[in-house]
C-alpha cells in the first residue's frame, strides 16, 4: 500500500503541483466534506490523471528512475492539459458514449 501511495503522490505532484497531504493542509478549512485532491479535479485533469497513471506504470516496468518519471509526467501533464484546453474549450460537452446512444437510464 505504501508504494501505491508514494506513486499516487508522484502523479499528484506532476499534475497538481501538490501531494495529497499538502492539498489537504491547504484546503482544511473549506467545509466539512471530506474531498480529496482528485475529487476536486476538473474533467481535463481527470483525463490527464488517467493517462499519467498508465504512463507511470509503463515507465516503472521499463525500470525508469523516479526522478525521470516525475519529469516526464510533468511534461506530459502540461502538454496534455494545454491540448485539451485548446481543443475542448467547454468540458461540459464531454458526454458518455452510452448516453449519446441512448443507453443510459
Structure description:
Helix 1 crosses helix 3 (43-61). It contains five helices and no strands. The longest helix has 22 residues, at 66-87. It is 64% helix and 0% strand.
Kindly report how far apart the N and C termini lie. Answer: 36 Å
User: What would the principal axes of the Cα set say about the shape?
Assistant: globular
Count of alpha and pi helical runs: 5
Order of helices and strands: HHHHH
Helicity, in percent?
Answer: 55-70%
Q: Based on helices, strands and strand pairing, what is the structural class?
A: mainly alpha
The value of Rg in angstroms is 16 Å
**How many runs of DSSP E, i.e. beta strands?**
0
Q: Spans with pLDDT under 50 lasting ≥5 residues? A: none
The overall average pLDDT, rounded, is: 83
Q: Gist?
A:
The protein is mainly alpha-helical and 105 residues long.
Chain-wise SSE layout:
Elements: H1 2-16, H2 20-26, H3 43-61, H4 66-87, H5 97-100
Helix pairs in contact: 1-3, 1-4, 3-4
Structure characteristics:
105 residues, mainly alpha, single chain
